[in-house]
Amino acid sequence: MSFEIYGPDPTVLDISGRKPHVLIIGAGVAGLALAIMLQKADIPFDIFEKSPEARAVGK
Ligand SMILES: Cc1cc2nc3c(=O)[nH]c(=O)nc-3n(C[C@H](O)[C@H](O)[C@H](O)COP(=O)(O)OP(=O)(O)OC[C@H]3O[C@@H](n4cnc5c(N)ncnc54)[C@H](O)[C@@H]3O)c2cc1C
């Protein structure tokens, strides 16, 4: 499977000379899917999750 990431080019440094760094708010399925894509594209990121524990949805 292949995919493309639209957004900052990870090979381009910003005006501070740093690589882009993505902040993901929420470790739901969308946030985790984005994290996987960013990791494959070698784009650094952090995830912020407000819930202190993992829990199932719909149970
Ligand atoms: C009762 C129920 C049953 C469901 N059953 C199914 C099913 O059987 N099959 C199915 O495909 N889908 C089901 N869904 C839908 C599915 O859960 C959602 O479509 C999916 O979880 C959405 O993913 P998401 O990442 O967008 O959001 P979420 O999964 O809601 O994740 C968002 C995350 O962001 C965190 N967050 C929110 N605000 C902040 C903040 N300010 N700072 C830090 N973190 C924050 C939340 O704690 C959460 O972990 C169900 C939903 C519900 C409510």
Spell out the blueprint of helices and strands:
Elements lengths: L21 E4 L3 H12 L4 E4 L11
Parallel strand pairs: 1-2
The structure holds flavin-adenine dinucleotide.
Which stretches of 5+ consecutive residues score pLDDT under 50? none
Order of helices and strands: EHE
**Kindly state the mean pLDDT as a whole number?**
82
Main sheet overview: 2 strands, parallel
| Amount of helix | 10-25%
Structural class, by secondary structure, is alpha+beta
Through-space gap between termini: 31 Å
The 3D shape can be described as elongated
Overall radius of gyration = 14 Å
β-sheet strand percentage: 5-15%
Number of extended strands: 2
Query: Widest sheet: strand order?
Result: 1-2
Number of helices: 1
Bound molecules: flavin-adenine dinucleotide
